[in-house]
Design goal:
By secondary structure, the chain is an alpha+beta fold. The protein contains twelve helices and 16 strands. The protein has three domains: 135 residues, no CATH class; 88 residues, Phosphorylase Kinase, domain 1, CATH 3.30.200.20; 194 residues, Transferase(Phosphotransferase), domain 1 (Orthogonal Bundle). Helices cover 37% and strands 17% of the residues. The longest helix has 41 residues. It comes from Oryza sativa subsp. japonica. It is found in: Membrane. InterPro entries: Kinase-like_dom_sf, LRK10/LRL21-25-like, Prot_kinase_dom, Protein_kinase_ATP_BS, Ser-Thr/Tyr_kinase_cat_dom, Ser/Thr_kinase_AS.
Length: 472
């Protein structure tokens, strides 16, 4: 069998298979086929695999990638006309989270039958040139699309947009990226300072080719809203493949650092029940503003402890709007082609429409899971533990609350603190009802947390029934 020729290792396609670039590439394959036949050289068969698959980088959001390689196979010659339909099926399956492969068979030359190594070498060089040209073409096209989106955003929102900086200005603001304060799948976060002395956090998107849409999404949503419980986007940079987001600096990091302090080697300040309640109310008010207070309703789709930042006074601010979706304020149902968010916080209806329609109530579910983690100090899922030995997390909370037991926080609590924890748990259990219709709105959640709704009742088990019933 001839050695494998790698066309483009882990090349992530930035355009759709039906785009002009895709067809140009297919025409090149046909040209190579014709060249091999006209040269009267005995061909052997290569298989060109295009494999869409689902990955979960950065906050485990769902994204699509593709990888391309030429793999030799023995056998006769086959056509490539069927490949496009196969790809469409594969892409459709990928949107549903199903692994699928489509193949395109491309003719190459058999070095064992041509008798001349120079012809084979020339053909290999040609393949490499095609791969390089394709990659550069895709990359250039993708960057142009992002540039056009940025310019369209600037034109649409005018003076309400955040400040745009050049990359050289960003380097000065970030002090040449000397003080790193965070790292994730999206890239790195550095501490910096604006020319007026205001401290900022500079997020550099290192995986820029895969973050383009999220970058535009973040700038277009958070860039034009202002609320005490939503982190402010002060500026951004989009210069070629270099993209950065500049936020107000949050000195106390994320809520995750304190909710799961036992996971860390360093001792962190433990959140007392009264502080938990304040944080929960702040998050709820920020979400209420996103759902009801903006000109367009903003659905976050990634509410979790890591995306809640804390300022000097431990006031919470919602961050990371890369997966957010905008819709009309009177639009109660939205359409998504695939689930989005982080495992453990994604509402059931995002996986299956049998649970109900996707709406702002999907964010309510995520909020409920966050609050349950906060009052218990436990993660809602732990992949390191065998599932058969672990009680379903919300069920464990439900049994504790329904039986009147106190949720153990690892320390002695006053009666008032116990009641606060119970109140938080009950509200959270209402928020994670499997049927979206049974979940309260964030306005009602704020009222429940601030005591405006008296005599909170424990809801039915949230994970056993999808029937609809009155919400408190």
């Amino acid at each position: 069998m001839p050695p494998m020729i790698l066309l483009a290792p882990s090349l992530a396609l930035a355009t759709k298979p039906t785009s002009p670039i895709w067809w140009k590439f297919m025409h090149l394959c046909l040209f190579l086929h014709w060249t091999a036949r006209s040269s009267q050289m005995a061909p052997f068969r290569y298989q060109f695999f295009i494999t869409p698959f689902m990955t979960c980088p950065r906050s485990e959001e769902v994204q699509k990638e593709s990888s391309i390689s030429l793999i030799p196979r023995s056998g006769g010659i086959a056509t490539i006309a069927h490949s496009v339909n196969n790809w469409e099926d594969a892409a459709h399956s990928a949107r549903k989270g199903i692994k699928h492969s489509a193949c395109v068979e491309v003719l190459s030359l058999n070095p064992y039958t041509t008798g001349t190594t120079s012809s084979v070498a020339a053909f290999v060089v040609l393949l490499l040139m095609v791969a390089t040209a394709l990659y550069l073409s895709l990359k250039t096209r993708y960057n142009e699309e992002i540039h056009l989106k940025v310019e369209m955003f600037l034109k649409t929102y005018g003076t309400s947009k955040p400040t745009r900086y050049t990359f050289s200005e960003v380097k000065k603001i970030a002090r040449r990226f000397k003080v790193k304060v965070g790292q994730g799948g999206f890239g790195s976060v550095y501490r910096g300072e604006l020319p007026n002395g205001v401290p900022v956090a500079v997020k550099m998107l290192e995986n820029s080719e895969g973050e383009g849409d999220e970058f535009i999404n973040e700038v277009a949503t958070i860039g034009r809203i202002h609320h005490a419980n939503i982190v402010r986007l002060l500026g951004f940079c989009s210069e070629g493949t270099r993209r950065a987001l500049i936020y107000e600096y949050m000195p106390n990091d994320s809520l995750e650092k304190y909710v799961f302090s036992h996971d860390s080697d360093t001792s962190q300040e433990v959140l007392v029940p009264s502080k938990m309640l304040d944080i929960a109310i702040g998050i709820a008010r920020g979400m209420e503003y996103l759902h009801q207070g903006c000109n367009q309703r903003i659905l976050h789709f990634d509410i979790k402890p890591n995306n809640i930042l804390l300022d000097y006074n431990f006031s919470p601010k919602i961050s990371d709007f890369g997966l957010a979706k905008l819709c009309a304020r009177d639009q109660s149902i939205v359409t998504l082609t695939a689930a989005r968010g982080t495992m453990g916080y994604i509402a059931p209806e995002l996986y299956s429409r049998n649970f109900g329609e996707i709406s702002y109530k999907s964010d309510v579910y995520s909020f409920g899971m966050l609050v349950l983690e906060m009052v218990s100090g436990r993660r809602n899922s732990d992949p390191s533990v065998e599932s058969q030995n672990v009680v379903y997390f919300p069920e464990w909370i439900y049994e504790q609350v329904n039986s009147g037991q106190d949720l153990a926080l690892g320390r002695e609590m006053t009666q008032e603190e116990k009641e606060t924890v119970r109140q938080l748990a009950i509200v959270a259990l209402w928020c994670i009802q499997w049927n979206p219709k049974n979940r309260p709105s964030m306005t009602k959640v704020v009222n429940m947390l601030t005591g405006r709704l008296q005599n909170l009742q424990v809801p039915p088990k949230p994970f056993l029934s999808t029937d609809s019933y009155p919400v408190l």
